[in-house]
Amino acid sequence: MAPSSRPLSPHLSIYRFTLTMTMSIVHRATGIALYGGTLLLVLWLVAAAVGGGFFDFVTWLFGMWLGQLVLFGYTWVLFHHMFGGIRHFVWDTAKAMDANGRELAVRIQLGASILVTLIVWAIFVWFK
Amino acid sequence: MSVLGKPTRAQIQNPATRYGKAKASTRHFITQRITGAINIVFSIFIIWFVVSLASRAPAEMIELARNPFVAIGLALLVINVSIHMRNGMRDTVEDYFDKGEHGWAMLANNLFVGFFFVVALGAIAKLVFWG
């Protein structure tokens, strides 16, 4: 059973926004986006299993501009959450926890997630 | 000391106060680390699977998904992701709901993850075994 006697988190509005706490919120937000986004994977797999006109429709849906925009955003969200997890693995070893180290860690995370997303889409989609 | 009910102001102010269940929380922490580390591999796998199929014919996706290595990879991904997403949502739920609300929120979490787990694995099994 989950413990229920912990104090709740204070509302977001009482915090001062620093880079690391903003990225902490973004880590949770991307996690929730990935959570909800599993429905896209379910839709795709079910459509493939059912086949026929429904699969053609879902293929068209993911291939049209709005579907592509969602998939592009989803790629960044997944990479950002992944690099955020790696940042936590670094912090688990108590490294990069000073003011400069932690700021650098989140800057590297943001830069890497954007760069890798662009590289993947450039190689597999835009200039294939 | 450990508190059972809603913590009082004095308990929150005392840094020696311990909340929740130590063993369950440690297991939660380690589980999230292990599934997260495995998910590094699965993240690269799923992005390769989705993006490399962009603008391909629907039949090519089915052909690729029926490849034994890809199908087993997808199934293991669904299992690992289910554990990681349920754990992660529990962290969020614990921050904003307590007592009765916590139970309802975790029920919704379990139903959502259960739906993903069953339907995704079912669809993969259908693709592999019945075409």
From TrEMBL, chain A:
The chain crosses the membrane at residues 32-54, 60-83, 104-127. It is a multi-pass membrane protein. The keyword Transmembrane applies. The heme is bound between the two transmembrane subunits. One of its GO terms (molecular function) is metal ion binding. Its main location: membrane. The keyword Transmembrane helix applies. Its cofactor is heme. One of its GO terms (biological process) is tricarboxylic acid cycle. It is found in: Membrane. Belongs to the cytochrome b560 family. Membrane-anchoring subunit of succinate dehydrogenase (SDH). This is Succinate dehydrogenase cytochrome b556 subunit.
From TrEMBL, chain B:
GO terms for molecular function: heme binding; metal ion binding. It is found in: Membrane. It holds the Pfam family Sdh_cyt. InterPro entries: SQR/QFR_C/D (IPR034804), Succ_DH_anchor (IPR014312), SuccDH_FuR_B_TM-su (IPR000701). Keywords: Electron transport, Heme, Iron, Membrane, Metal-binding, Transmembrane, Transmembrane helix, Transport, Tricarboxylic acid cycle. One of its GO terms (cellular component) is membrane. Its cofactor is heme. The chain crosses the membrane at residues 34-55, 67-85, 105-129. One of its GO terms (biological process) is tricarboxylic acid cycle. Pathway: Carbohydrate metabolism; tricarboxylic acid cycle. It is a multi-pass membrane protein. Its main location: membrane. Part of an enzyme complex containing four subunits: a flavoprotein, an iron-sulfur protein, plus two membrane-anchoring proteins, SdhC and SdhD. Membrane-anchoring subunit of succinate dehydrogenase (SDH). This is Succinate dehydrogenase hydrophobic membrane anchor subunit. It comes from Devosia insulae DS-56.
